[in-house]
Write a structure and sequence with these properties.
single chain; 123 residues; alpha/beta; four-stranded mixed sheet; globular
Length: 123
């Protein structure tokens, strides 16, 4: 499982976590990344700050930042790069996947392979 945070994204998330935690070693506080929805316009991702992971989450570490990946979303997050861009209207986080293809005929919708898994169709 590879999910990469750019230096800007890791710094922003780590700074936020440290500011929201009195004792950084007291919990398993980290971020949880998941795919919320998908289709021809691309997948919609979520980044949430959590205190404890779910039992089936995949645990990653980047620098001092714990990353929990929703296990059902893991195939869709393979190869995704998360960047932080100051000035974006929403959270400032931008997701991209260099492995995205247009195999479904509707543009680069962060699909890899043949429109799978079936839970997130391209039409």
């Amino acid at each position: 499982m590879t999910l990469t945070l750019t230096e800007a994204a890791e710094f922003r998330l780590r700074t936020f976590l440290l500011a929201s935690s009195k004792d950084e070693n007291a919990t398993q506080k980290g971020i949880r990344v998941a795919v919320e929805d998908g289709g021809c316009s691309g997948y919609q991702y979520s980044i949430k700050v959590i205190n404890t992971p779910q039992a089936d989450d995949i645990v990653l570490q980047q620098g001092k930042l714990r990353i929990y990946v929703d296990s059902q979303s893991a195939p869709l997050l393979e190869g995704v790069v998360v960047d932080f861009v100051d000035g974006l209207l929403e959270s400032g986080f931008k997701f991209s996947n260099p492995n995205a293809t247009d195999t479904c005929g509707c543009g680069k919708s962060f699909q890899t392979g043949n429109c799978s898994p079936a839970g997130v169709p391209c039409s």
